[in-house]
């Protein structure tokens, strides 16, 4: 009864929001205004009218500025401090991906491959219709900023590297094709996550991944000790060719999905659940002991699956050589999958990109925003644990 009522309430809220664009604008404006005011409070070390010894300045007045979003232009009050030192990065970050999205929609309209709905959306967002020159003006500043990000020199080691690709629909010469978007995330010596590269390729292959990794090395990628990816054959070969000293971890989540190919449709659920538990063990010795027990239990019932697991599971257990606190982050590509989900949420608005450039532009803009947010986070991983482990291994080997 409660569940049904809750579902009804949720549905009503969704219908209300989806049907009232003014309400959505008001809610978003309120949220963004709170962010701006919160930034000022953090900058000054004090909330409005708060008396505190830690205060570093005082509020002055506001100035008005507009922020273009997909549900219309928001008129915001941006706070000032008396010394004029406060600056917000909110507009630059938010507008970057929004402009990329608007540009992609506008290109669809100009090229005659969109609908009246696309025309209405883009005109509402920016207040005017679009010409090729207008799109060029939108893209110019974006492309310059994104090029700086994509070509920046990587001047520190990245012990951990996570690689993956996703596919987007792109129209080329009147034909709709799937384009691979290759992404690399690195974790540096301070334990911070960073988006290192975002590139497009006609397809995932050994040569496309090899070029991707070689370009990273040309930009200064160094110190890679551990790489996580799925089992794509071309990617595996490229990693072994270019990152010769790095250990490779096959994503265990992809591995468990692949295992379904070796099971009958009505297989025992306990079989895969018990296989999944192996990845929660404290060390490789425990994992191998549980693996042996799993093999003995299921060999008779699912011989095809068990034979496949025995032949391939070793590639998914490389993470056990790392400090235990790092296991949860590096036994799968989930860190990158979450970024891909955010990309998907935004690119599905476009559905089919008018060209490869607009596709790459939007995804890079989204990745830059994520990259900048990660840089502001506190340390994601304690990399001192890796250094301590290496010292201990050297001591034991001496």
UniProtKB/TrEMBL annotation:
Family indicated by similarity: Belongs to the transposase mutator family.
GO BP terms in the entry: DNA transposition
Keywords: DNA recombination, DNA-binding, Transposable element, Transposition
Pfam families: Transposase_mut
Protein name: Mutator family transposase
PANTHER family given in the database record: TRANSPOSASE FOR INSERTION SEQUENCE ELEMENT IS1081
Described purpose of this protein according to its UniProt entry: Required for the transposition of the insertion element.
GO MF term set: DNA binding; transposase activity
Organism encoding this protein: Parazoarcus communis
């Amino acid at each position: 009864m409660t569940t049904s009522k809750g579902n009804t309430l949720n549905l009503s809220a969704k219908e209300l929001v989806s049907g009232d664009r003014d309400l959505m604008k008001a809610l978003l404006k309120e949220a963004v205004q709170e962010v701006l005011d919160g930034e000022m409070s953090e900058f000054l070390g004090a909330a409005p009218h708060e008396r505190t010894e830690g205060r570093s300045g005082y509020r002055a007045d506001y100035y008005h500025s507009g922020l273009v979003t997909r549900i219309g232009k928001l008129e915001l009050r941006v706070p000032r401090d008396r010394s004029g030192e406060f600056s917000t990065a909110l507009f630059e970050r938010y507008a970057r991906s929004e402009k990329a999205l608007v540009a992609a929609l506008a290109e669809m309209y100009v090229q005659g491959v969109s609908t009246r709905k696309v025309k209405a959306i883009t005109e509402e967002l920016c207040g005017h219709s679009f010409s090729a020159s207008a799109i060029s003006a939108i893209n110019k500043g974006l492309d310059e900023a994104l090029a700086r990000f994509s070509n920046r020199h990587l001047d520190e080691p990245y012990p951990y590297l996570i690689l993956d690709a996703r596919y987007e629909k792109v129209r080329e010469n009147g034909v709709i094709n799937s384009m691979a978007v290759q992404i690399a995330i690195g974790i540096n010596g301070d334990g911070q996550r960073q988006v290192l590269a975002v590139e497009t390729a006609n397809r995932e292959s050994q040569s496309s991944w090899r070029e991707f990794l070689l370009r990273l090395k040309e930009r200064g990628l160094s110190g890679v000790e551990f790489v996580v990816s799925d089992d794509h054959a071309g990617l595996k070969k490229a990693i072994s060719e270019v990152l010769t000293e790095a250990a490779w971890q096959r994503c265990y989540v992809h591995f468990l999905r692949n295992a379904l190919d070796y099971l009958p449709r009505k297989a025992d659920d306990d079989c895969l659940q018990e296989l999944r538990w192996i990845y929660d063990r404290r060390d490789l010795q425990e994992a191998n002991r549980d693996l042996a027990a799993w093999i003995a239990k299921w060999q008779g019932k699912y011989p095809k699956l068990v034979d496949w697991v025995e032949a391939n599971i070793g590639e998914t257990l490389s993470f056990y050589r790392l400090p235990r606190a790092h296991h949860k982050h590096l036994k799968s590509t989930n860190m990158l999958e979450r970024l891909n989900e955010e990309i998907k949420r935004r690119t599905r608005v476009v559905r089919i990109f008018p060209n490869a450039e607009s596709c790459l532009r939007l995804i890079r803009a989204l990745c830059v925003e994520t990259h900048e947010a990660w840089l502001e986070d506190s340390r994601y991983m304690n990399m001192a644990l890796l250094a301590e482990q290496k010292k201990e291994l050297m001591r034991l080997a001496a």
